[in-house]
């Protein structure tokens, strides 16, 4: 365990105590990943404050809890013991979950250390129809030629294979950036609710699962003030009204 990780854990714990001390009325939620029950932490990325975002016990964010619930549901109906899975930019929250279920589990990323395959999504070196299940969350918003990436994902997927390809939804209509924005972790676009239309030309069926279709107790919304966009950090994200926003997990069938 690194010193940085331990310090982060201590800060989260202190934040939690201060929430309970100064705001005892704060809403209680449940984390499906670690079974924690209690208030979630607010976080402050460069793009602005996100309320009730983080589980103080395991660190899972809204999208991790949501994706975990969706995966648990999908995989409960499939015998995965003989299936091969490829996990891009593997999240620690989901790694063990997948590893324990699939017959063969492999990881991939362009920059991350310790993965099985150091690869670029736009030029995947794998043979056609190599994998039964592909998971790549919050990656395509970093990829300039996303159509090429989608082509390769579809190409390496076996018949009856499934690809789960969520992106952050931060606009109504997708906006392409002229260059990657370092303040948004080098995103090359602001994906909108229309973004998953791009998947339809590559996959037979794209099922969109919405976060508000699952129980509120898991807190799967993004509580975010988007009326302050565009700003210095995200100059091309459009203004959006409302105080909380839904998320979507696209389930793509080969
Ligand atoms: Zn948790």
Instruction: Name the overall outline.
Output: globular
Give Rg in angstroms. 18 Å
Residue stretches low in confidence (pLDDT < 50, at least 5 long) are none
Please tell me the CATH architecture by its name.
Answer: 3-Layer(aba) Sandwich
Question: Strand arrangement, largest sheet?
Answer: 7-6-5-8-9-15-12
How many beta-strand runs? Answer: 15
For the report, how would you describe the main beta sheet? 7 strands, mixed
List each distinct ligand once: zinc ion
Mean of the pLDDT scores? 93
Structural class: alpha/beta
User: At the first level of CATH, what is the class?
Assistant: Alpha Beta
Q: If you consult CATH, what is the topology?
A: Rossmann fold
Please write the string of helix (H) and strand (E) elements: HEEEEHEHEEEHEEEEEEE
CATH superfamily: Vaccinia Virus protein VP39
Distance between the termini: 39 Å
Beta-strand content: 25-35%
